[in-house]
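Researcher: Sequence recovery benchmark, item below. Answer with residues only.
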């Protein structure tokens, strides 16, 4: 996913970044070297928790990709492409995919809203 870093906040010695994408603005933890404000990065987005259907992942009537914030949590609206029997699933956010782990039952092939405060960005360095 392509982002532009708008602001860096150090929390307990670790960077958290405010960023923009073509789908909206949000804030997440940053893994690796501290990024530069105003620079464009291509990142992998990782959700560091199992998502619970009906709590942190829900069907969504909005059929468009989006990223934002709700209090201190990242909100993603994406297309749930596939789910394996072990709960491993693929969430599409535009041209990017996000690997997620689900607890509960939901059918793929629909837009969903994810809310998580365990989101980390990894610079793909290209």
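Model:
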């Amino acid at each position: 996913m392509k982002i532009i870093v708008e602001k860096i906040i150090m929390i307990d010695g670790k960077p958290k970044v405010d960023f923009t994408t073509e789908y909206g603005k949000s804030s997440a933890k940053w893994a690796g070297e501290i990024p530069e404000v105003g620079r464009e990065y291509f990142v992998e987005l990782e959700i560091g928790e199992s998502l619970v259907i009906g709590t942190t992942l829900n069907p969504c009537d909005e059929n468009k990709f989006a990223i934002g914030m709700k209090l201190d949590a990242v909100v993603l609206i994406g297309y749930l492409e596939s789910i394996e029997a072990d709960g491993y699933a693929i969430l599409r956010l535009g041209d990017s995919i996000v690997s997620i782990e689900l607890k509960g039952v939901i059918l793929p092939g629909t837009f969903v809203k994810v809310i998580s405060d365990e989101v980390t960005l990894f610079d793909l360095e290209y």
